[in-house]
Design goal:
The chain has about 270 residues and is α/β, with parallel strands linked by helices. Helix content is about 45%, strand content about 15%. It folds into two domains: about 5-125 and about 200-274, Rossmann fold; about 130-190, no CATH class. About 40% of the residues are buried.
């Protein structure tokens, strides 16, 4: 599948960094981060993608798995005649980036040198403290009557299902106008399948053996990491192909909570790989 995309920065820059958003989002979620990276490090141009079943990348063919997401990246790069130097994925997008590295990092013609994983534990996450919350949000999305007649009405309904005002307002930004009202900009059954795969896939083997630099960024206040993940994170930090950073003063939304600190971490590694 060819994914919807948006370029940022100079098309003449010799290196490409690709940004992959989290579940329920779209490429625009990381636009500010992408612009900051290419403005401060002009050797790079950026590519923002809408992952399958999100934004303008729908409908997507089955199966809705991480492997399919990685193949979407490969198909999109081939269609655009691009070969990325770096991938940067937040949350769900981080595990997509690792899955791509597992299958395509050492393929013929690949220029990939680094994968930046932003607060996305590589291991199975069914036991993570926040997984129950994500499941609840998905259940609410599935129950919300469609079409919604107004964004405010949708926010009220989401709050009535028990979501916080902040989460409800953020989700409502994913409603788009249609002739009969507002509908989700994502394919809900596809999201459920993608999450079910995300929760069970283990990409720690890729972290330990990838032929490229793996940069793992853990948010200091994040609750998405299990004790097993933290143990493996410490082990990974000793590997020559892995760099581990903790982003201070940040919860899971690293690009919002501490954008300056995140930019410093990313650009430091990008300089090291060139």
């Amino acid at each position: 599948m060819i994914l919807a995309s948006h370029r940022v920065g100079s098309p003449d820059a010799p290196h490409l960094i690709v940004f992959l958003h989290g579940i329920y989002g779209s490429g625009t979620n990381l636009r500010t981060l992408a612009r900051s990276v290419v403005e401060s490090f002009t050797d790079f141009q950026g590519l923002l993608l809408d992952l399958r079943n999100h934004g303008a990348s729908l409908p997507a063919p089955e199966p809705h798995t991480l492997v399919a997401c990685a193949q979407d990246l490969a198909d999109t790069f081939a269609a655009l005649n691009l070969s990325p130097t770096a991938l940067c994925g937040h949350s769900f997008g981080g595990k997509v980036a690792l899955t791509y590295a597992a299958s395509f990092a050492d393929s013929t013609g690949s220029r990939l040198r680094s994968v930046h994983v932003l607060d996305s534990p590589p291991g199975p996450s069914a036991a993570a403290p926040t997984t129950a919350q994500v499941r609840h949000v998905l259940s609410v999305i599935e129950q919300l009557p469609q079409p919604a007649q107004s964004r405010d009405a949708a926010v009220s309904q989401l709050e009535n299902f028990g979501l916080s005002p902040m989460v409800a307002r953020w989700l409502a930004t994913n409603l788009t106008s249609t002739p009969d009202g507002l509908r989700w900009r994502f394919f809900v059954p596809g999201l459920r399948a993608m999450l079910e795969d995300f929760w069970v896939v283990d990409q720690w083997p890729t972290v330990f053996s990838a032929p490229v630099l793996i940069h793992l960024v853990r948010a200091e206040k994040s609750l998405v990491w299990t004790e097993e993940d933290l143990t493996k994170l410490a082990q990974a930090a000793t590997r020559p192909n892995v760099r581990v950073d903790v982003l201070p003063k940040s919860d899971h939304w690293v690009h919002i909570d501490n954008p300056k600190g995140l930019l410093q971490l990313l650009t430091a590694v990008l300089r090291d790989i060139l």
